[in-house]
Amino acid sequence: MNWSYIAIAVLSLIGIVLMLRALRTRKPVRASYHKQDFLFSPEERQVYLALREAVGAEYAILGQVRVEDVIEPRSLAHPDPDWEQLVVTGEDTFPFLLCKLPDLSIACAVQLIEHRPTRQSRQADRTEHPLKAVCAAVALPLLRIEAGPFYDRNDLRQAVADAVRKEPLFITEGDGRKEPTLATLEKLKF
What are the sequence ranges of the domains in the chain? Predict the structure, then answer.
């Protein structure tokens, strides 16, 4: 009876040693990743090539830039509803940013709009796009290009020129604060 216990112990010890050796020699499992072949979708590549032909000498074209890398909300405690809607609507990335070549300062953001049937486009025009509202709030020109089979280089050049044209700056006081004038300063008693 003692020999049977010893035989079972030896066999289990041999089994454990073989199992540990098999675990040590097993190759690590590679994580499953897939490299994208292109940074842009086919439609975005067409727009990129057209933009490069139209304004390549004047602007650097950066692609797939997150909105939060360009625009920061002033207060995270009270987030803007448009800012929150960026992720929901899928507009949290600029497909393209046009930057001035000497210093890479941001000149214009470009958004590619998918072509929709007429009824859907009317409904989409009625609702304000959050990216459009956020860009308007920080005075960043947003050029919205509708996806299509081809793009005219001259039309794109003109659209970019119109978007980056400096308009007169009107400063508005959004917090209700009024600057004192000389007339109100004279009325103060010291």
Answer: 58-163
